[in-house]
Amino acid sequence: MSDRVVVAGAVYDQGRLLAARRSAPPELAGRWELPGGKLEPGESGEQALVRELREELGVEAEPLERIPGEWPLKPGYVLRVWTARLVSGVPAPLQDHDELRWLGPGEGDEIDWLDQDRPAVAEAMRRLPAGSAPTESTPTESTPTGTAPTRSLPGGARH
Predict the structure, then answer these.
(1) What is the pTM of this model?
(2) Which of 137, 134, 128 is nearest to 60 (CA)?
(3) 8 Å CB contact between 6 and 37
(4) Span between the terminal Cα atoms of the chain, in Å
(5) What are the φ and ψ backbone dihedral angles of 100, each rounded to 5 degrees?
(6) Which of 42, 52, 66, 91 could anchor a disulfide with 37, C-beta 3.0 to 4.6 Å?
(7) CA pair distance 27, 30, nearest whole angstrom
(8) Of 128, 157, 134, the residue nearest 23 (C-alpha)
């Protein structure tokens, strides 16, 4: 029997990577991950990623490319990661997370990532688009001059 696939998204917007802090289960709570979830029967990895980002964060995203490799999670599960572009919506921690944070170049080590996410995060940070301009369909945040583009987004309760 093959392992069950968990998909995650290295979501990019305006030259930043989105990180999500786990609210559950207790052994993972408080640590950071790339958002995503389990592949359902009949779904491709890309379809699962779009669905999971919609459910967990309330956004529409476009999968771009798979980061090479897969990483073991708990027994019977493996993690596969895709880069993705935020298409519409403002990410909010709707399920399984209590905080979100945008990370710019060089900020990937500022948070406590889940161990299994670290190799994919390192690759995602290497692929971080440098200062990409927002598109019309991409929500923008105004950042006062002289402040860092990284910020925490308000938390939300888990369903």
Answers:
(1) 0.79
(2) 137
(3) yes
(4) 32
(5) -125, 155
(6) 52
(7) 9
(8) 157
Q: Taking the alpha carbons of 11, 14, 15, 16 in that order, is the dihedral positive or negative?
A: negative
Q: Quote the pLDDT of residue 65.
A: 95
Tokens found for residue 66 = 């798979």
Tens digit of pLDDT for each residue in 6-15?
A: 999 999 999 9
Q: Single out the residue of 85, 7, 78, 79 nearest to residue 46, CA to CA.
A: 7
**Locus of tokens 């708990």:** 74
Q: Which of 58, 121, 60 is nearest to 93 (CA)?
A: 58
Amino acid type, 46: E
User: The tokens 């207790």 sit on which residue?
Assistant: 26
